[in-house]
Specification:
410 residues, alpha/beta, TIM Barrel, Non-ribosomal Peptide Synthetase Peptidyl Carrier Protein, Chain A, 8-stranded parallel β-barrel, two-stranded antiparallel sheet, 15 helices, 13% strand, disordered N terminus
Length: 410
């Protein structure tokens, strides 16, 4: 359950939900930079890789608000190795991205190793291996969060990545398990440690839980106690204060921020503030948010072109305005925009001076609720010691359709 946002008491000057009104800012020396091989990340904050979200335009915007590590959206190994233009675009680096971080998805060690080799040759600084994606189109091929159910296969994938990384740090992202009957994260931590991963990130929900319920921060703490490599915690970081609470409660080495920053890239400024011992500023008002959204839209159009770019900005328009009063009609218009001019016209029609509402801190801007029965290949769980890669996780046609859907906002 997401925290309940209520009105602040008159005596409090902090813009925060109930659990965070008395959380102290970081004390000097309380936290250390996240160490990933030669990299030192301060503050210890990572932008979560999110498909259809963390392409270069959004990464660059978040980076300008605060320091940290900003990971690309999931890049498919087969699409990348086949030189598919859209995959290459999504994986591309830019001079202002230091460190440059790419998340890869693949279920065949040969593909993963070759992709890592090519990325390292391009100068990538950090590689993350996606073993946590819960969506049907991935797990039904035996990929993503299905892989940790087979620890020997997971070991082969990590071994291939690390062997071709030439010292570039390789991390891995997992979930607690497939469902409550098959919990895998402790085995995943052991495999990650044994195979030379620089760190492991735990999204503290099962694949079956998707994004529902409350993230199990105790699982993060348990994993911290179980491995010697850094553990990155992920789940239910809606406010900068949540990151401090997670690190204090679990002992994790860094916090990975996902849904909380959608339509709120200034969250990274707030995170930088609290880790430096400062109270963050009041969030921007609706007019200032409109300026941020327009800046974002221009970057998206420059990167993808106006057709794909404006289809992407339809969802962003909803995320930037969600939680504000009397914006439902504007969101309906934003869901149909096809030009920068129309996007700006809708945003400029809103009440610019309206302050950011407290309820908008925790409103769910993306990811459907509810739970699922995880879709797997037939017989996938019959032999958990099997280390053979799943057969043809995606045909070339499926890869093209998938990536087009992601970049178009589908």
């Amino acid at each position: 359950m997401e925290p309940q946002a209520t009105s602040l008491p008159a005596e409090s000057g902090r813009f925060a939900t109930e659990p965070n009104r008395s959380v102290p800012v970081a004390a000097t020396g309380e936290f250390e930079p996240l160490k990933l091989g030669p990299l030192q990340i301060w503050p210890p904050i990572v932008l979560a890789p999110m498909a259809g979200v963390t392409s270069y335009p959004f990464r660059s915007l978040c980076r300008e608000f605060g320091a940290g590590l900003y990971v690309s959206e999931m890049i498919t190994a087969r699409g990348y190795l086949s030189d598919h233009p859209l995959t290459q675009l999504l994986a591309s680096g830019h001079p202002d991205e230091k460190p440059r971080s790419v998340q890869i998805y693949g279920s065949d060690p040969i593909d993963v190793g070759e992709m890592v080799r090519k990325l390292v040759a391009e100068g990538v600084d950090h590689i993350d291996l996606n073993l946590g994606c819960p969506v049907r189109k991935v797990t039904r091929h035996g990929g993503g969060s299905a892989i940790p159910a087979k620890p020997r296969l997971m070991a082969r994938l990590l071994r291939a990545a690390v062997a071709h990384a030439e010292g570039v740090p390789v991390t891995v992202k997992v979930r607690k398990g497939l469902d409550d009957d098959l919990i895998t994260y402790l085995n995943s931590g052991r495999v990650a440690e044994e195979e030379g991963a620089a760190a492991i990130c735990l999204h503290a929900r099962t694949a079956a839980a998707l994004y529902s319920g409350t993230a199990d921060w105790e699982a993060i703490a348990t994993l911290v106690q179980s491995v010697s490599i850094p553990v990155l915690g992920n789940g239910d970081v809606w406010e900068a204060w949540d990151a401090l609470r997670m690190m204090r409660q679990t002992g994790c080495a860094a916090v990975v921020v996902g849904r909380g920053c959608l339509g709120r890239p200034w969250l990274f400024r707030e995170l930088a503030d609290v880790f430096e011992g400062r109270e963050p500023e009041t969030p921007p008002n609706l007019g200032q948010i409109a300026d941020i959204a327009m800046n974002h839209a221009r970057r998206v159009v420059e990167f993808f072109g106006e057709d794909i770019g404006m289809r992407q900005m339809r969802k962003w328009g909803a995320w930037y305005t969600k939680g504000f009063a009397n914006t439902a009609a504007a969101r309906s218009e934003l869901a149909r925009v096809d030009s920068l001019e129309k996007f700006e016209s809708v945003l400029r029609g809103l009440e610019a001076n309206e302050p950011f509402p407290l309820r908008a801190l925790t409103v769910n801007r993306a990811k459907r609720g509810g739970t699922q029965r995880v879709s797997l290949p037939e017989g996938y769980l019959d032999d958990l010691d099997d280390d053979s890669p799943p057969k043809s996780p995606h045909s070339p046609e499926e890869l093209v359709a998938w990536e087009r859907a992601l970049t178009s906002g589908g």
